[in-house]
Amino acid sequence: MGEKLGRSSPAVLRLRMPCDLRHARGIARAAHEFLANEGCNEREVAECELALVEACNNAIVHAGKNEKPILVEVMCAKEEIEMRVMDQTQGFKWPQKASLPEADSSHGRGVFLMQSLMDYSNYFRSECGNILVLRKKRKDGV
């Protein structure tokens, strides 16, 4: 028999959001409260909140005329926070490493911010929907 490594059950917050920019901030505030209640430090909470606002905004902006809701999951474990934003849109091409756009550009900062604030970010596209995965290692643990 192999070595037993133990069981893990991270705390999970699941949210559904209409495809409307007015709701992104409320989703991020709910995630902020959830992470703070799970013992995350102020910096982790603030960085995750900002990254999640950008993730939700991107999902909505790229939705076009999509009326399907966006699903958000925030998982908090002792070592790591993972956030997933799931949409049913055509999606977009996720850059391996985003660069900061020109100062006069009205868009293009969201992916750069997400990649800068998180330890891991990737976007998975499929015909059934897309999943943006953002991960941040926890410094203090629970």
Tell me what you see in this structure.
With 142 residues, the chain is of the alpha+beta class. The chain has one domain: Heat Shock Protein 90 (2-Layer Sandwich), CATH 3.30.565. Helices cover 30% and strands 27% of the residues. The protein contains three helices and five strands, in the order βααββαββ. It has helices at 24-37, 42-61, 109-117; strands at 11-17, 70-76, 80-87, 120-126, 129-137. It has a five-stranded antiparallel beta sheet with strand order 1-2-3-5-4, with helices on one face. The longest helix is centred in the middle third of the chain and has 20 residues, at 42-61. The protein is globular. The two termini are 31 Å apart. The model has no long low-confidence stretch (mean pLDDT 84).
Topology:
Blueprint: E1 11-17, H1 24-37, H2 42-61, E2 70-76, E3 80-87, H3 109-117, E4 120-126, E5 129-137
